[in-house]
Sequence to fold (459 residues):
Amino acid sequence: MKTSQRHAPNIISRPGVRSAPRPLSFVRVPTARARRVLQDSRACSSHARCHLRHFERCCTTPRKSTVRAAPRKSTVSTDGFIQGEPSKEYIDPAVAYQYLARTQAAACKGRRTIAFARLSTFGVANDLNSAVKALHIANARLSQLVFLPPDGADISRLNLASRPNVSHPWHWLPDQPLSDVLNLSACHRHLLEHNRSWLERVAAEGLTSRLQSALPFVTRLLNFNWRQGAYLRQVPVKFRTQGMLWWWSVLSTYLVRPAGQLASRLEHSPALKGLPLPWRLDMSERALNFRSRTDITLFDVGLHVRMGDACGANAIPQASRLCVRTLREALQRVELRPNSTVFLATDSDAIVESVAGIRREWPALRIYHLSLTRAKYDSQTRIERRVHSDRAQILSEALLDMAFLSLSRRIVGAMIGNLPRLALQLRVRSTYNYTALDSRAWCTRTACKLPGFRVSDGV
Fold:
């Protein structure tokens, strides 16, 4: 199945074979108001104060469930998960970007609704996926999203050289503005420019009633449980047939946008020296532009093998981790042609060193990886909680790995981790093709720990 076909996104179970579609169906709420809502998703604006978990009562009522999910005790195929309606016409993601821009890029004035979300303090991909979820919730509540630094308790666990503030709120980017990695809303930029002292007080004190009354905006602070996933009913009506993964890809590619000094550092990173020169010359237009054409791929397989503090020799065993500890074992899970191209993303020097042995057995198999030292990732302690003077370098390495993984026809990795999931989301596709090394389906939660899920928990 080619990504250029004009159908709604489908996730296939094996190369070239389409699984049976699972259509999603909805019924109208029997009121004239609800019928108008179904005709125009923007009609939900009068219901913006509805609690997110009951958002379907504001717009539509699902017939049985919003997502065709496997029963909790059953397993989901490790070769993909079907969502969306393949019989429906594929929607150009540019339409969805325009939809998001109407809310997030609108002029910040009048009674504009602002949703504040604190940045999390975990790994790079984990933090970025949390930011994507915050954008999803803010959009469902018709609010502009503004990011705040983590709270004091979270910051104290990080052993940082300098404390995050509203100008530099993310611990992985301590000396550069957040706009170097995320596409900020109009209200976020407005508050930084015109109401910085007020924003600093909100970051320090929270949204007190006194602070809320100081400005004309309608404000709220977002809080969400890592166990709670997203619901298809929260997706704008016009995009629901495309499926949750398609929508999550739109959110990810709208929000994550390397720019400024960070983009320059990525384009000229010494870690790229092991890759063929033509790819390096096209970094800004292809690898780092996540909205670029999705029918262009550089690799047959993008493989992520996580070791480090999760599965490495010094890692503390975790029952929820189904680790794959050798490159050979990971490759055996994938259907490869003798001359396939593989991009390998890993935090283990030992995994990279084993590439030589694989090449001797399969000389036509081409395996590429970044040229970097990975010893810093081998520890019992989470890397974000260790003292680092090179946090920006760790960020750059993670973004480069995800960028090249996203340019693969099939992405392979453990879905409990955020890095392979975010790489899957960083290209909007008509066909999503992945292999879960831990037999878990892609999800929108912080960690996809269950082989199946309940509809009540979200995707």
